UniProtKB/TrEMBL annotation:
Protein name: DNA segregation ATPase FtsK/SpoIIIE, S-DNA-T family
Transmembrane spans: 29-49, 56-72, 78-96
Protein species of origin: Allokutzneria albata
Record-linked PROSITE patterns: FTSK (PS50901)
Annotated ranges, domain FtsK: 236-417
Residues that coordinate or bind ATP: 252-259
Length: 497
């Protein structure tokens, strides 16, 4: 039987892409000869730039490597070992005698270089691809460039050059994934300049420990009302608040530490309160649970949200107008030479006064007065410190009048947006994630500054408040006498207990 020679199936067309040769291979030989020296110089310059970049990014590794190599060549292995032991010993003594300067100038540098190589440079390409932050156009891949890395111990600051056409919002959406990929607990995205970002990859919270109040300054110390130190930022710098020409809104759930922000501010004002330069006026609708701890510091304090509180607010609103009239054509804004005291109005639960008051008339009068003080009081030397538990619309409708907003621990992400404004949470201000174990930790947003700041207010204890009262009044604080509970024997002897 004749066997058919026909194949079972037609072979498939060969489907391979034609190899793309570099453009210069297509040049004629004479052009290659002419261009060879130019290419050589260009390659040498490129190599030198790469080497310089490595030296800038890894100075410790490069210097140690070069010194080690030249020591080995010139002196031999035993000398090199001896010198290395002496250097390591010297560094150990430095770390032991002055750990802060050692950490700052030496350990930080070593850690930075190590983390750059091991964590970021090593995984960069994979993480960028898996996070969908690369772009492919006609077979060419465009990848964000890893820039300078700086490791501060508790966070790594990683600079990035974005791919053209990319937006910071794309990075903000992927922040959580990036944090997990690089083994961090959170990632914040900051825009440095067009096309350049800085990622804050946070590993641990530097604010877990409470921060005690600083020593009270001498009574003659001058107080800068534009820079009052009320705590410590996570970067280790002081957290300052501006009172002159400003109003401050503090929002936090119950037990979040609103009291510590308020008392830290009053602590910073102490010399000015003593000298009469600053006058405190307070409203505490919770019956004095907060301001009642140190009423001696206040010029006037009301412990309700009723008629008395509303009258006080209206008096202040009237004073704002009077002062504005007095300063007209004389002073542009309040200064100590006006002879008037700078007035700080502290309202412990602002919502109780302007929103939850059941009497509609009182509520509206209070809201009108607070609005007058907040909108017209900056220049004539009035500031409002409003503390709020519940950032609902009725309260936060006043938000735009407060130049500085502080969000302590909040219950939901939406509340963060209500307090700090849209987009601030995406930039990292996750006040709803503050732990219940760290009262006093706060996100601060100042109008006109894009980046929010995370910090912890000083922890002002009852003993500190007693010291503050003695400092301002010059009298010893009166301590309540704690009596022993009568024991059983005395009760029987004396009849009824
Ligand atoms: N900055 C701080 N550092 C350490 N502990 C703090 C700090 N602030 C407050 N605390 C502690 O947290 C607890 C609650 O603080 P605080 O009463 O100030 O909260 P609050 O927000 O005013 O609460 P509430 O709304 O119920 O009045 C207190 O036990 C206090 O000692």
């Amino acid at each position: 039987m004749a066997r058919s020679r026909k194949p079972l199936a037609e072979p498939a067309a060969l489907e391979i892409t034609r190899p793309r040769l570099p453009w210069w291979t297509l040049l004629p030989l004479w052009a290659k000869v002419i261009l060879a020296p130019v290419a050589l110089v260009w390659s040498a310059a490129w190599l030198m730039i790469r080497a310089a970049r490595v030296a800038v990014r890894y100075p410790v590794a490069v210097v140690v490597g070069l010194l080690g190599w030249s020591g080995y060549v010139q002196l031999g292995p035993w000398w090199l070992l001896g010198i290395s032991a002496v250097v390591v010993g010297g560094l150990g003594v430095w770390a032991w005698r002055d750990s802060s300067s050692f950490t700052r100038f030496c350990w930080c540098e070593i850690r930075t270089e190590w983390r750059r190589v091991v964590v970021y440079a090593w995984q960069w390409r994979t993480v960028m691809r898996l996070s969908d932050l690369t772009k492919s156009v006609r077979g060419a891949e465009f990848r964000p460039k890893l820039g300078r890395v700086r490791s501060d111990g508790w966070r790594d600051r990683v600079r990035v050059r974005m791919v053209k056409g990319q937006a910071p919002e794309q990075w903000e959406l992927r922040a959580s994934g990036l944090a997990h990929a690089f083994g961090a607990s959170s990632c914040r995205v900051r825009v440095r300049k067009p096309g350049r970002l800085e990622l804050d990859l946070v590993h641990r919270d530097p604010l877990v420990r409470p921060v005690g109040v600083p020593e009270l300054p001498p009574v003659e110390a001058t107080v800068d009302l534009k820079r009052l130190v009320i705590g410590v930022a996570e970067t280790g710098r002081s957290l300052t608040l501006r009172l002159q020409g400003n109003h401050v809104l503090v929002v936090g759930s119950t037990g979040a530490g609103k009291g510590s922000v308020m008392w830290s501010l009053i602590w910073a004002l102490a010399p000015a309160i003593k000298s009469g330069l600053v006058r405190l006026v307070g409203i505490d609708p919770k019956g004095g649970m907060e301001l009642g701890q140190a009423p001696e510091l206040f010029d006037r304090v009301v412990y309700s949200n009723g008629g008395e509180a509303v009258e006080l607010l209206e008096q202040l609103a009237e004073q704002v107008k009077e002062r504005a009239g007095k300063y007209r054509g004389w002073l542009r804004s309040w200064s100590p030479k006006s002879g008037d005291p700078f007035t700080l109005l502290v309202v412990d639960e602002l919502a109780d006064v302007i929103a939850y008051q059941s009497d509609k008339n009182l509520r509206e009068r209070a809201a009108r007065a607070v609005q007058t003080i907040a909108s017209q009081g900056r220049a004539p030397g009035f500031a409002v410190l409003g503390l709020v538990q519940d950032p609902r619309k009725e309260v936060v409708s006043f938000r735009h009048l407060f130049g500085t907003k502080l969000a302590l621990r909040l219950d939901e992400p939406a509340q963060v947006d209500m307090v700090l404004g849209e987009g601030v949470r995406q930039r990292g201000a996750t006040a709803h994630e503050i732990s219940e174990n760290t009262p006093g930790v706060v996100w601060v947003k100042v109008d006109g500054r894009k980046e929010p700041v995370r910090a912890r207010a000083f922890h002002v204890t009852d003993a500190d408040l007693d010291r503050l009262v003695s400092y301002v009044t010059g009298r010893e604080a009166v301590q309540a006498e704690v009596l022993d509970f009568p024991d059983r024997v005395r009760r029987i002897e004396g009849g009824a207990a």
